[in-house]
Amino acid sequence: MDKLRIGIVGAGRIGNVHAESITYHIPEAEVVMVTDPYEEGARKLAERFGVPKYSKDYMDIINNKDVDAVLVCSPTPTHAEITIAALKAGKHVFCEKPVHTSIECIKEVQKVAEETGLKLQIGFNRRFDHNHSHVQRLVQDGTLGNVELIKITSRDPEPPSPEYAASSGGLYIDMMIHDFDMAMFLAGCDVTEVYAMGTSLVDKRIGEAGDVDTAIVTLTFANGALGVIDNSRRAAYGYDQRVEVFGSLGMAADENDGDSTVRVSTAAGVVSDKPQFFFLERYMQSFTEEMRQFIKAIREDTEVPVGIHAGLMSVVLAKAAKKSLDEHRPVKVSEIYGG
Amino acid sequence: MDKLRIGIVGAGRIGNVHAESITYHIPEAEVVMVTDPYEEGARKLAERFGVPKYSKDYMDIINNKDVDAVLVCSPTPTHAEITIAALKAGKHVFCEKPVHTSIECIKEVQKVAEETGLKLQIGFNRRFDHNHSHVQRLVQDGTLGNVELIKITSRDPEPPSPEYAASSGGLYIDMMIHDFDMAMFLAGCDVTEVYAMGTSLVDKRIGEAGDVDTAIVTLTFANGALGVIDNSRRAAYGYDQRVEVFGSLGMAADENDGDSTVRVSTAAGVVSDKPQFFFLERYMQSFTEEMRQFIKAIREDTEVPVGIHAGLMSVVLAKAAKKSLDEHRPVKVSEIYGG
Amino acid sequence: MDKLRIGIVGAGRIGNVHAESITYHIPEAEVVMVTDPYEEGARKLAERFGVPKYSKDYMDIINNKDVDAVLVCSPTPTHAEITIAALKAGKHVFCEKPVHTSIECIKEVQKVAEETGLKLQIGFNRRFDHNHSHVQRLVQDGTLGNVELIKITSRDPEPPSPEYAASSGGLYIDMMIHDFDMAMFLAGCDVTEVYAMGTSLVDKRIGEAGDVDTAIVTLTFANGALGVIDNSRRAAYGYDQRVEVFGSLGMAADENDGDSTVRVSTAAGVVSDKPQFFFLERYMQSFTEEMRQFIKAIREDTEVPVGIHAGLMSVVLAKAAKKSLDEHRPVKVSEIYGG
Amino acid sequence: MDKLRIGIVGAGRIGNVHAESITYHIPEAEVVMVTDPYEEGARKLAERFGVPKYSKDYMDIINNKDVDAVLVCSPTPTHAEITIAALKAGKHVFCEKPVHTSIECIKEVQKVAEETGLKLQIGFNRRFDHNHSHVQRLVQDGTLGNVELIKITSRDPEPPSPEYAASSGGLYIDMMIHDFDMAMFLAGCDVTEVYAMGTSLVDKRIGEAGDVDTAIVTLTFANGALGVIDNSRRAAYGYDQRVEVFGSLGMAADENDGDSTVRVSTAAGVVSDKPQFFFLERYMQSFTEEMRQFIKAIREDTEVPVGIHAGLMSVVLAKAAKKSLDEHRPVKVSEIYGG
Fold first, then answer.
1. CB count in 10 Å sphere of residue C280
2. Residue of A nearest to D130 (CA)
3. Cβ <8 Å between C254 and B267
4. Quick one: CA torsion of A43, A48, A52, A58, rounded to 10 degrees?
């Protein structure tokens, strides 16, 4: 079978990450075209990874008969539109999250994907992380028994600017969306209710901009388990990414990855490495693995590991959390979607 | 200064623990009398620790001029009554928790304590644990900066019988009361609001008896920090007792204590010790330390480390949590007390 | 059965440790007499633990018909003489290590012990440590398979004065003797050859006094396994006590004990506790346990857990190591003893 | 500056590892030719990494004017001859270890390298490992003070066949050579004396073939520090790679890398990951890093990080260790070289 031919829409940071994974680590595929309205970015990506074609207009990829699959790595507001165009042109699609901030739009994407029967994978890369995926396997293989409690911690090393916070859609959709997906991934089922707490302790201006920077959200899962997520926009010690699943037969929990396993013992104490700096360092392996599995699903015509349902429900939970915060009460997921 | 002379009301498990601490580890005090309606129990404790007097009736301690301080280790419903009697007889009191399940009764105890000016310490022993107290010191000395998030995990090794669960007052007051106190201890302030989730995943009969065995409760602290407690009545791997405090300058978290630090590496994996079995093993050091500090506070006429306010607020939070669960909404602490 | 009646010869630090263990933790025994040429020390110990009799002369214990067993906690040069006197007076003996620095003397003690048939236990307390003994159990129960490599690290927090070093008999007998015994304990057999390296890197004056402060000694065990011990008189981070056993089925290794399990994560790194300060903190539990087992062996008339053979062979290995260092070659144990 | 053009001699496992590093991770270089007497192997490597030329004869690389640097990845007996030919043809060389088993040959290589002034790097990849190199940096930057003790553990997951062991030159040169280099790397100086112990506990046939499979070697460093290396050809729990440096200000020690940080707590215990399987998994990052630094040294005309001195002294130490084992005595390095 020939190599799968891939077009990348968007030559920013994440577009480069995927281009690198494919070029260096996935011999079954090749990047044949990249587009970006900022044409110089597209040109640089093309040069860096030996991609033969680049342009400003994503329609050049959509219309390119030699492209089998499209990676949608453009800004969030354009995800749905490009995904739909690509699907309608007969191309498989990998779409970064969130698919859209409107549930109606996501459902439209879902409809098109179902009609075309093409592969559509959503970019929840953390599911492919070596630590978190190991915990999930222990759920799936029964080692932990029935899942009863799930705890997820995500804390960023540095807060965004208040301007970014204001325009990002808020912490629940900008940051916690990963954790909502992780929660469902670990539980193996959907969430039925959320209760959200949030405040601005890191930077008062984030609160003045109408967002929160410190948050706890509790979850009720469809299988009866309970869960809790905590987020902070700033951890002094770095990027903190941990999950814990507690079940009837035991618990699995992961720790942060450091740059080394060295422990230094001096009169000052016994010191270990801090967590790796941020998501590009910490999750690089997961970006490669999600791409590998996307390409494998196309080539072997099997189900993608993260479908549009995950893309939909993560946004639904973010909206439910925001509503819970605003109305200061637990919110049923059915109030937002599917009631 | 002569030894402080102590009378113990209640010769059960915890009465024996305190008698052992005083006899073996606190040379500044001695147990001079013990009472228990089950006289044989009192006799055995007296024999075991060389206590010169024992009887069935706690009034024998109250009326004993040679007793300086009373440890109230009797069943919960009798705590308040005995504490008041002892205070009125001019004796300092150490009272096991909970002081009472009625807030009115606790306030009555508080009033008598204030009127008499005698020492009254409540038995929240976990504050004296070598791990948890180290975390609290890091809050207090500013190492962690402003406290923003607090997480507490408490899981028992084995569930109680459904009958016990039914008669215990429920998980929030029977088990989580320790964690409510720990939360306020770590935060250094009171809690203003709680939201409680609870379910019976361990034993359906516990649910049928009207109680829960798996619970998550979120907390809003007076200083603006957020917190979360999770409880389970059964952890397959043993007694799980961990706290984590996250602040503007960093995080402190403790791990369970095992019986050894040995790691065994075989073809099956790298295996470490499970947590120590249950509270008598895990918290023995803390029982001795709380008693040492109680005795020190009396002898040096300083403030007791855990006063009646802690006894009161922990019960208030347990009641608020129960109300939150019943009414499925966040409950302000002021709805229960002090509003 | 009545309590075992114990006399303690020597009211120094270790005499007090044993008195505390017996008085507070071993209800099956009681200290009935203590002697010390420094009578004030004997008086203080007696007062502290309620011991009814004290005097300056250890013969008062030897001649006391109400003493069943004697703890020899006097300075090293007197160990053998007092032990022999006590055995001949029909008393069981617990003797601190080393029994003597002369092999002839130790053999004389051994002969008397065998003739009298009384219990004689040597004070290698580390065998009873919760960590090291756990490793040894894994050897004994076959978890690790055939033992192939043993590694022992012992490092003190602070060096002794050069004067002490000069008079102590040297590092191999003063400090590494514990590790020689630990090596045989873990291997379950004797050592047949040693090769010793030693130097003074911590304090040149220790070298000038004819001793070493930094040492590595390799061992060949009778069962064919290899071993290595490293010692330093000064570890900046504290008292470092670790063992590792590697066998055909796996490895067991222990870590130092800290005062808590807390990890503090800040911008400076992730910091854990240093090892507990020194042997009184680190090994207190083992002192109590060795005494408990000594008393049990007497009361149940079973073999003592650490007999005179251990006392003999540890000194033999120390001498072999010194000879190896002096002659700069591997030395067979049979050159020193039993050849 | 143009890309550095590299020829690879030897298309086996390690030749492929280097080709992958250069092709995927080092944009400053490119592989332009590969040779292998087994031409099919060369063809496959060329195809896999898009290398334009391949042949059977390494002289095709030596004579190729378009090759700037040669990687010598052929069998050990040919290393010196090919390295010399390449240097004489004006090409920089990266040579796998050991350079040769004859010290005379290595000195000849050294002479040619010095005469030509070209770069010559030896393949001690472990110096570039994220864990071990972190420990070395702590030595170099003074964090640990004066180095006093060095401990290195290397254990393979599975023993070689007795035939391989017989033909490999023996454990000291085949396996421990890495550890000899690591010891000098960590100490920052040469070794002056070794004492070797060795036995065959893993497979008696290895002993019958004249080799050992379990070994301890002690080291005296030129700076006065002491060291010890232990090796086993079979660790039931996997590839065990740890170093520890103890100095006047503290200690740094690393742990094995696992595939994840997950800990699983069940009734059976608390289980962590085993070490990563073997050197290709464990040290892949170090292979890339050594190549990156080799290419950087050429392009920036700076000193290579691992020169021929390391290649020479590691073989000298292996020979000294073998002599020590054979003659059962400590052997000065000057007996082998440079005396």
1. 13
2. A260
3. no
4. -50
Nearest residue to C305 via CA among C119, C134, C177? C119
Distance CA B308, CA C97 (A): 52
**What one-character-per-residue DSSP string does B11-44 give?**
-SHHHHHHHHIIIII-TTEEEEEEE-SSHHHHHH
> Which of A265, A266, A272 should be substituted to probe chain C, the one whose Cβ sees the most C Cβ atoms within 10 Å?
A265
**Which segments of chain C are extended strands (E)?**
4-9, 29-35, 53-55, 69-72, 92-95, 120-122, 147-155, 191-199, 214-221, 226-232, 240-247, 250-253, 263-266, 269-272, 331-332
> Are C243 and C219 within 8 A, CB to CB?
no
d(CA B25, CA D242): 43
pLDDT of residue B339: 60
Please provide residue A98's backbone torsions phi and psi, each rounded to the nearest 5 degrees. Answer: -75, 150
SS3 call for C216:
strand
The token pair that represents B288 in the structure block: 């001795």
* DSSP conformation class of A59: H
Compute the average pLDDT of residues D68-94.
97
pLDDT higher than 90, residue A338? no
Q: Both tokens of residue C19?
A: 């008195």
Query: pLDDT at residue A337 above 70?
Result: yes
- Does residue B40 contact residue B11 with C-beta atoms inside 8 Å? no
- In what order do the strands lie in the sheet containing C92-95? C53-55, C29-35, C4-9, C69-72, C92-95, C120-122
Q: Note whether D262 contacts A143, CB cutoff 8 Å.
A: no
Is pLDDT of B163 > 90?
Answer: no
| Residues B256-289: tens digit of each pLDDT | 999 999 999 999 999 999 999 999 999 999 999 9
- The helix (run of H) or strand (run of E) holding residue A233 is none
- Kindly report whether the peptide bond that precedes residue D98 is cis, defined as omega within 30 degrees of 0: yes
Q: In angstroms, rounded to a whole number, what is the distance separating the alpha carbons of residues C15 and C4?
A: 17
Q: Of A116, A31, A28, A14, nearest to A72 (Cα)?
A: A14
Counting as contact any 3 or more CB pairs under 8 A, the partners of C are A, B, D
Q: In the prediction, which pLDDT does A249 show?
A: 98
ipTM of this complex: 0.95
- In angstroms, the CA C95 to CA C80 distance is 8
pLDDT at D124: 98
Which phi and psi angles does D9 have, rounded to 5°?
A: -100, 110
Which residues of chain C neighbour B130 with C-beta distances below 8 Å?
Answer: 259-260
Alpha-carbon span B217 to B196, nearest angstrom: 4
* Rounded Cα gap, residues C223 and D277, in angstroms: 30
The CA distance from C76 to A292, in Å, is 70
Query: Scanning every residue of chain A, which has its alpha carbon at the shortest distance from the alpha carbon of D262?
Result: A254
Q: How far is D329 from chain C (nearest CA, A)?
A: 6
pTM for this entry: 0.96
Written as one letter, the residue type at C313 is M
Q: Cis link prior to B98 (omega < 30° from 0)?
A: yes
Tokens of C159: 């060096």
pLDDT in tens, D262-318: 999 999 999 999 999 999 999 999 999 999 999 999 999 999 999 999 999 999 999
Instruction: Report the distance separating Cα C331 and Cα C318, nearest Å.
Output: 11
Q: What is the pLDDT of residue B113?
A: 97
E strand segments, chain B: 4-9, 29-35, 53-55, 69-72, 92-95, 120-122, 147-155, 191-199, 214-221, 226-232, 240-247, 250-253, 263-266, 269-272, 331-332
The Cα–Cα gap between D11 and D283 comes to 19
Of B219, B214, B210, nearest to B313 by C-alpha is B219
Asked if residues B171 and B164 have their Cβ atoms less than 8 Å apart, the reply is: no
Query: Are C338 and C315 in contact, with CB atoms under 8 Å apart?
Result: no
